[in-house]
Amino acid sequence: MTREISFSGAINEAIRLAMRQDENVILLGEDVAGGAEIDHLANDEAWGGVMGVTKGLVQEFGRDRVLDTPISEAGFIGAAVGAASTGLRPIAELMFNDFLGTCLDQILNQGAKLRYMFGGKAQVPLTIRTMHGAGHRAAAQHSQSLYAIFTHIPGIKVVVPSTPADAKGLLLTSIEDNDPVIFFEDKTLYTISGEVPEDYYKIPFGKADVKRQGRDLTIVAIGKQVHTALEAAEQLAEMGIQTEVVDPRTLSPLDEETILASVAKTNRLIVIDEANPRCSMATDIAAMVADQGFYSLDVPIKRITAPHTPVPFAANLEDLYLPSPKKVIQAVSELLGDESISAI
Amino acid sequence: MMKSVDQKDLLFSREKAVWMYQKMVEIRKFEDRVHELFMKGKLPGFVHLYAGEEAIAVGVCAYLSEKDSIVSTHRGHGHCIAKECDLKGMMAEIYGKAAGLCKGKGGSMHIADLAKGMLGANGIVGGGFPLAVGAALTAKLKQTGNVSVCFFGDGANNQGTFHEGMNLAAIWKLPVIFVAENNNYAEATPFSYASSCTDIAQRAAAYNIPGAIVDGKDVVAVYKAAKDAVDRARKGEGPTLIECKTYRNYGHFEGDQQKYKTDEESRYHRDEKDSITLFRNYLLKNGLLTEEKLSAIDSSVENAISEAVRFAEESPLPSEEELLADVYVSY
Q1: How far apart, in whole angstroms, are the C-alpha atoms of residue B59 and residue B226?
Q2: Core vs surface per residue A190-225: b (16+ CB within 10 A) or e
Q3: Is the distance from CB of A22 to CB of A89 less than 8 angstroms?
Q4: Which residue of A203, A242, B60, B75 shows the fewest CB atoms closer than 10 Å?
Q5: Is it the case that residue B9 has pLDDT exceeding 80?
Q6: With 50 as the cut, is the pLDDT of residue A273 above it?
Q7: Which stretches make up the Transketolase-like pyrimidine-binding domain (chain A) (predicted)?
C-alpha cells in the first residue's frame, strides 16, 4: 500500500519503523524531542526538531531513546560514534550541515577511521541526519550543501535523497548499515509530497535511479536539483529534446555504471549540483565521465553549479546563486549550438 | 619467609598486587625496549612513550572488569598493557606487521582491542572524550553496569571536547571516569602556561562532579581514587574527574631532546618518585611479595618482551590487499 505523504513525514516514518524494529536504535540531537525536563510541557507539545521532522517520536519511544542534547555538537556527535562502536545504533541529528565545523574531528578522524585503523575490528553503525540546501533565505551559515566534503572522506557513506519514497527507503538502509552514513535532507524538500509505501523497505546504496528516460541528453542531478532537471526536461521535451535524468541518490558509493550507460546512450552530459564548483560532486562526476566515458561524448561536459561564493541572503541574489531550469536550458542551447533553444 | 599480613587492612589481594606489579613492569620494560628499538632505527613513524606514568593506567585498570571500556591517547601503550592487550600483538602493531593487533594498519597511535574493552589509542589530542561518553551512554541505555574510562593528558584539558564531554556525562549521569595524566608538559609547553587553572581537577566544579587530585606515581593512591569513582559510576551517580600528577621519563615523542625539562626535576622523578620502586617498597613493607618473587616477575617480563620483539620481527608485512580492506563493513 502506498499513499501520498511529505518528505519530512517519510523521514519520520522511517525512524519510527527502525526504532520499533531494533531497540538499539536511538535518536539524539538538539531538540529532537524538544523541551526536555520542562514539567508543564506535554510530550505531544514537544518540538520534534526545529523543523518538526521527528515530532511524535518521543511519545512512542520515550526520552531515553529520543534524547535531547545540549548545543554541543563535538560532544554528542562523538558520543554517537562511541555509542555506535559499543553496541547501539544511533541516529544523530546535526541540525544544519553547516555546523560540521564544530564536530568535524569526531566524524573525520574518529567515526570514519576507527574501522580501518583498528584493522577491521571496529564497526560504527551510525547515521548522521543533517539539513542542507539553499533557497530558504537562511543565508551563508545555514544553506550550504557540503556533501562533497564527506564524499571525500573514506569510511563514510553519503546519501542525498530527492523524493519522499527515496528518503524513506534510503534512511532505513542507512540505519541498518554497519558503517557511518551521513544522510542529507534538503530543507526546501520537507514539504513536497509523493507516493510512499507504508511498509518497511530499503533502497540499496550505489544504485542510481533514472528519474526520466531520454535519448538526446543526460542530466545527472543531486538532491533537490533533480527537480530542477525534471522541470527543464519537461520544457526541452516541448522543443523535441528528450532528456534522461539520473539521480545518483548516494554519492558514496557512486553508481558510475548507470551514469556511464546513460552517457553512452545520449552522448551528452550536464551535471547539476547546487554546491560550490571547486572540488565538487559536479567536478567529480565530470572527471569520472571524462576518464571512463570520453569516447561516448559528442560535446564537452557542462557543469551547472553555484558560483564560488557563500550563499547570499537577499532573495534575488540567492535565486541567482542556485541552478535553475533556465540555466539548464541555456546550457543545452550552448551544447547543441542551437540558439533557438530557450527557456519558456 | 613472608610476614603474615592482615589482608583486610589492604585495598587489594595479594593476587591483585602481583598483577599490578607485573603490569607496571611490563609497561616500563616494553617502553624502554621500544625506545631502544626506535634509536636503532627499527621502528617507523611517531612513537610516544608511557614510561614513568605506569601507576595511572595500572591503578585504574586494576579495578576494572574486562567488559569495562577505556579510551586512550597517543601515549597509549601503557593503557593497552593495563587492559591486558597482548604484548606480541602490540609490538607487531608498532612494527607495522600483519600480526599486529590492528593488522599493522593502525600503528603506535591507534592500537585497539575492542574485545578487551580497549577502544583505541587516539592520534587526536582530546579526541577521546566524546567516545568515552558514548561508550558510557551504551552502558547506561543497555543497563550493562559497565563503566568507561577516558584517559587524557594535560594537553587535552583545554580542548573543547573535554568540556563538552564532561558536561554531557554530568547532565546524563553517565558512568564515565575522566582520568587526567598531568605530566606537566603538553609537548614542550608547560601546564602552567597553557591552562588557566592550577589543577585540572578544579574544572570538575564547573560540571558539578567530584574532582580528585592524586599522586600519579603512587599506584595505591590511584587505585583508591579509581575505586571510589568506579563505585560511584556503577551506582548510577555519574562521572568523576581524577587528576593524576605525574611525569614522563621520555620526551613527548621519540627523538625529542627534552631541553625544556630541568635536570633537577628529571633527577627527582627518577631517584625519588619512581612509581615501580615506590610500589616495590610498598609490597615488601606490607609483606605482600618477597624480593625473590619480585625479581622472578622482573625476569619473566624481560623474557616476554624479548619474545614480543622476536614475534614482531618475524611477522610478515601486511599483504597488499590490506590497503583496500576494512574501509567499510560492506560497500
Answers
A1: 7
A2: bebebebeeeeebbebbebbebbebebbbbbbbbbb
A3: yes
A4: A242
A5: no
A6: yes
A7: 5-192
Q: Which CATH architecture has domain A2-197?
A: 3-Layer(aba) Sandwich (3.40)
Share of chain A above pLDDT 90, in %: 95
Residue B13 falls inside a structural domain? no
Q: Is the pLDDT of residue B11 over 90?
A: no
Assign a CATH topology to domain A209-336: Rossmann fold (3.40.50)
Rounded to an integer, what distance in angstroms lies between the CA atom of residue A148 and that of residue A306?
13
Q: With an 8 Å Cβ cutoff, are A82 and B133 in contact?
A: yes
Q: Which of A142, A152, A227, A308 is catalytic?
A: A142
- For residues A287 and A259, the answer to whether their CB atoms sit within 8 Å is no
Q: ω into residue A310 within 30 of 0, thus cis?
A: no
Mutate to test the interface with B, among A61, A63, A69, A85 (most CBs of B within 10 A): A85
Q: Which helix (H) or strand (E) holds A193?
A: strand A193-197
In a domain, residue B125? The reply is: yes
Q: Classify the complex by whether its ipTM is higher than 0.90, answering yes or no.
A: yes
Please choose, from the candidates A246, A171, A247, A201, the residue with its C-alpha nearest in 3D space to the C-alpha of residue A8. A171
Q: How high is the pLDDT of residue B330? A: 84
Report pLDDT digits (tens) over B108-123. 999 999 999 999 999 9
Closest CA to A323 of A195, A221, A235, A236: A221
The pLDDT score that the predictor gives to residue B2 is: 45
